Amino acid sequence: MTNPLSVLREYNFFKKPIIERNNQVIFGANSWPKTTQTNYLVCGSGKDGTQKKYYTLECLLYFIKNASLSHPKYVEQAAAENIPAVRRPDRKKLLAYLKGDSSTMSSSIDKNGPMRDITIVYDKEAEIETNELRAKLGLIKSEETNHSSIN
């Protein structure tokens, strides 16, 4: 079973296109709902008998996109868009992990945390969008993009 945290890390590290559509996060032919919990524990949860809480895929994707903002600005912006924010104590380790900078697995990654099966999708729009993004990034030639968009 593939977990969304590992897939998000891989796609972020290799700068592969990630598509958000209809409350889904699409990684190539695989998809999860934005609300899917990853297995990255929210700082302070699960200690002293408290319930474990996990960051959602939507939260982590938003964090990656806005990691350059100061923490107060990021939190304010996330709140305005009704997206849970990554807590300050988690920022540095989480960002290092998602960028592939951290060679060791963080202690905040719960190996027994929530795992959800992926949804296999074939979405022609997503394929076209992915190819267009890859072309913009120089990962494929634009002729390949045009070819896939007319089929």
Explain what you see:
This protein is an alpha+beta fold and 151 residues long. It has one domain (4-137). The protein is built from six helices and six strands; from the N terminus they run αβββββαααβαα. The strands form two sheets. A four-stranded antiparallel β-sheet has the order 1-2-3-6, sandwiched between helices. It has a two-stranded antiparallel ribbon with strand order 4-5. Helix 5 (124-136) runs antiparallel to helix 6 (142-150). The protein is globular. Mean pLDDT is 84; it is low at 142-151. It comes from Parasteatoda tepidariorum. Residues 1-119 form the Paf1 complex subunit Cdc73 N-terminal domain. Pfam families: CDC73_N.
Structure at a glance:
GO terms for molecular function: RNA polymerase II complex binding. The protein has 151 residues and is an alpha+beta fold.
Blueprint (SSEs and pairs):
Blueprint: H1 4-13, E1 19-21, E2 24-27, E3 30-33, E4 37-41, E5 54-56, H2 57-65, H3 71-80, H4 88-99, E6 119-120, H5 124-136, H6 142-150
Antiparallel strand pairs: 1-2, 2-3, 3-6, 4-5
Descriptive key words:
6 strands, 14% strand, globular, 151 residues, alpha+beta, two-stranded antiparallel ribbon, disordered C terminus
| Range of strand content | 5-15%
Mean pLDDT: 84
Distance between the termini: 32 Å
The neighbouring-strand order within the major sheet is: 1-2-3-6
